């Protein structure tokens, strides 16, 4: 008889091979704790020997699990394709979930319509949990997620919800402090900053790191706000030069914005790093592609994604999920 014609093994076959009841097999496959170690070992050996494959659709009727996780990106759709950080988070999370026989669904929640679609999807019970990416403080979607009763974990803390929503993040404050200290050590006297949106941790915490080093020297005129886009970084750099024409260094809160800042500096006839040193944050693919290559803060995005998935699985298994903050590294290249 060919492999194609051979009957697929059933839960009855597993029970017979393991010498236990079908109920015991079911409890092992569904992760129940009221099974002896010897019975669990026998069942798992029998599963391997028989080649039994769990029918996820059937099991979901019992466990209420869908085997699906939704990644919610709270930014306009174009940011997904412009910012390389998002592709790293998606790739790592997808691979990690695949190892658990789970799928990742991406949804964009950058406007009211997107948020409503995500809320409707979650209320419909289509996902076991949510991975939140670039979530802004006060986002109304957060209340919808809570009402839907869907476990959620964030890539980066959700400001104001740090004790409610578990998260994995890079040390934004520490990384910004290290970059600012480096610029000071290079003899720079007038150091400005282009921040990210202040309702995100990368915006507010990196600004805190910057001001913790410079104190009063970090006056309002030395700080302009950006939006994590290249065009936003270019426009912010133009404003900063207009306000502080004798600026000799700038810390930019993302590599993408730093690439825009470099364009503005070149257009203004400023040499980098001779006239103005530029430091970024992320160490994304963009950092080595700029001219000059970008001195930046490396955040371990792949590890952040791994930890975020691990925390969400812990929540699904009703285990503790404590926040994780990972260290950053200063990467020195040609721009500073």
Automatic annotation (TrEMBL):
GO terms for molecular function: DNA-binding transcription factor activity; transcription cis-regulatory region binding. Pfam families: LacI, Peripla_BP_3. Signal peptide: none annotated. InterPro entries: Cro/C1-type_HTH, HTH_LacI, LacI/GalR-like_sensor, Lambda_DNA-bd_dom_sf, Peripla_BP_I. Keywords: DNA-binding, Transcription, Transcription regulation. Residues 10-38 form the HTH cro/C1-type domain. Residues 9-63 form the HTH lacI-type domain. PANTHER family: HTH-TYPE TRANSCRIPTIONAL REGULATOR GALS, LACI-RELATED TRANSCRIPTIONAL REPRESSOR. This is LacI family transcriptional regulator. It comes from Glycomyces paridis.
């Amino acid at each position: 008889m060919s492999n194609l014609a051979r009957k697929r093994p059933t839960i009855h076959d597993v029970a017979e091979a393991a010498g236990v009841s079908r109920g015991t097999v079911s409890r092992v496959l569904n992760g129940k704790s009221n099974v002896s170690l010897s019975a669990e070992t026998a069942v798992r050996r029998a599963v391997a020997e028989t080649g039994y494959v769990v029918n996820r659709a059937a099991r979901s009727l019992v466990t209420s699990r869908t085997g699906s996780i939704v990644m919610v990106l709270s930014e306009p759709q174009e940011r997904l394709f412009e910012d390389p950080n998002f592709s790293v988070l998606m790739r790592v999370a997808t691979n990690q979930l695949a190892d658990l026989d789970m799928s990742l669904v991406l949804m964009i929640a950058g406007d009211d319509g997107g948020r409503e679609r995500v809320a409707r999807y979650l209320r419909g019970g289509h996902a076991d949990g949510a991975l939140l990416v670039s979530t802004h403080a006060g986002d109304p979607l957060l209340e919808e997620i809570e009402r839907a009763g869907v476990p959620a974990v964030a890539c980066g803390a959700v400001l104001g919800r740090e004790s409610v929503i578990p998260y994995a993040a890079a040390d934004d404050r520490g990384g910004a402090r290290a970059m600012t200290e480096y610029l000071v050590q290079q003899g720079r006297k007038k150091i400005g900053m282009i921040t990210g949106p202040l309702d995100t941790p990368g915006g507010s915490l990196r600004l805190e790191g910057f001001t913790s080093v410079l104190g009063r020297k970090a006056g309002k005129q030395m700080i302009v706000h950006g939006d994590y886009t290249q065009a936003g970084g270019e426009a912010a750099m133009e404003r900063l030069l207009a306000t502080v024409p004798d600026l000799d260094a700038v810390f930019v809160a993302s590599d993408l914005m730093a690439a825009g800042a470099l364009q503005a500096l070149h257009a203004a006839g400023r040499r980098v790093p001779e006239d103005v040193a530029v430091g970024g944050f992320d160490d994304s693919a963009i950092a080595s592609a700029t001219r000059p290559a970008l001195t930046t803060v490396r955040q371990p995005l792949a590890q952040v994604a791994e930890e975020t998935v691990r925390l969400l699985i812990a929540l699904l298994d009703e285990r503790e999920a404590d926040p994780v903050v990972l260290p950053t590294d200063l990467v020195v290249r040609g721009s500073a």
